[in-house]
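> @MW can you paste both from yesterday?
MW: sure, first one:
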Amino acid sequence: MRILCFLTISFLIPCLSFCSPAAVFADDGVTLESVVAPGPNQADEPVAKELSLEKAAHFLDSAALTWQKDRKCFTCHTNFAYLYARPAISADTTAHTQVRAFAEDLVQTRWANEGPRWDAEVVAAAAALAFNDAATTGKLHATSRTALDRMWTVQKEDGGFSWLKCDWPPMESDDHYGVTLAAIAVGVAPEEYAATPAAQKGMEGIRRWLKANAPPTLHHQAMLLWANSYVPDLLSVEEKAKTIQQLTALQKPDGGWALATLGDWKRGDDLQQDTEHSDGYGTGFVLYALRRADVSASDDVIRNGVKWLRSN
C-alpha cells in the first residue's frame, strides 16, 4: 500500500501542476543524511482537511531517499517515478539533487562496472532521466544520452524489450508497458534526440512491435495516449478519440477513476477487485493522460477529476 501511495502522489503532483496554476515551494530540508522513513499506512489515519502539495512533496522526498538509502537501487514504483514528479513542484531541492545524482551514478558507474540488473532497468532509467531533463534544464544531459543509446542495445529483433514480469501490474507484468515507456523516453528527450539515427531505427522497431501487439488493457492504451503526445503517429486520430472516450466513460459520479476498471488484473489475495470506488492512482493517471491528449483543463471531465484529487 505504501508503494501505491507513492505512485498516487507521483501522478497527483504533475497532474495538478498541469491542470492548475503553478506554485513554487521552498526546499523542505529532507536529505539522504537526515531522512526519516514514512510511517506505515493506517486504516484509521485521519483525512487531511485540505490538499497540501508541500506535504505531498515532503512524502515523495522522504520515500525516495529512504528507498535509496536502504535499498540502494532504482525501481519504477519509487525513485524512478520521483524523477518524473518532483520537478513539477521544484527541482531546486537537496533531495531531488541527491536522487538525480544517484541515477546518473547508476548509469555511469554501476552499469560500467557491473552492467544493468535487467534490460528493463535500461529503459526505465533512460525514460526517467530524459523526462527529468525535459522538466528541468530542457537540455539532454550526457548521462541521459548514454542511457538512451544503451536502450537500443537491449532492443529485441521484433522491436520489443524484455520486461520484468513480477505479476505487479500495471508496471511490471507485461512487455507492452516497457515498449510504450521506451517510446515516451524517445519522444520526451530534449534536443531532438528522436531525430538521431539510433532513435529513428529504434522507433521503427517500436512501431513494428506495437502494430503486432495490441494493448492488453485500457491502462496501456492510455499509456499509448501519453506516448502519442510526444510521438504523434503512434495512434490514429480515430484511435486517439476512442481512447479518450473510453477513459472519460469510466469516470465515477464523484469525479474520480478506479484503477481496477482500467485492466482485468487479479489481486494477490484472491479477493474481488474494487471497481466501484475512485482511487488516487487511477484518477491522477487518467487525468494526466487526458491532459497530455489536449483535453482542456476547463473541460468538466478534468475539472471534476481535479476536484476529486483536491478533496481526497
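MW: second:
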Amino acid sequence: ENVIDVLQLARDCDAERIGFLCVSMVIKDFKSISSTEGWKVMSHTNARLEQELVEIAVEAELQKEDRMKKLEERKVYVELYEAMEALVHIYREGCGTIGPRDKALKGSQTVCKFPACKVLEAALRHFLGCKSRALCLQCKRMGQLL
C-alpha cells in the first residue's frame, strides 16, 4: 500500500537499499501497486519516477519472458539430445528391450539405460502403422527425425 511513499522517502533520504527493496516490490506486484493512491499521487507529482518505474517493470517482464523462453528451448534441446542418443544406441548397438510387445525380457536382458528407447519404439510403431502419414503430425516429426 505505502511502497511508493517509502520509495520516494528513500530517494529523498539517499537510502539506496530501501529504495532498491521498494523497486523490487513494485516489480513483483506492479498491477496492484499501480492502482494505489500513492501511485496516483506520485504520477501527478513525479512523472519522471513513474516513467522510470514503468520502464523497470517492463524490462523485468521482458527478462522474465526471455528466461522462460530459454529454459523451454533448453528443455527441447535436452529432449532432442536424448532422442538422438537413443537412436544411435538403437542403430549401433541394438536395443535388447525393444522388440515384439507380446514377448517378455529374457533373464539375461536388463532394462535399457536410455529412457527415450521406449518412447522411440512407440513412435516408430505408430509411424510404421499409420494410415495417414501426410496429415499426421506425429509421423511428420518422426520423418524429420529419421
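> thanks! The radius of gyration is 28 Å.
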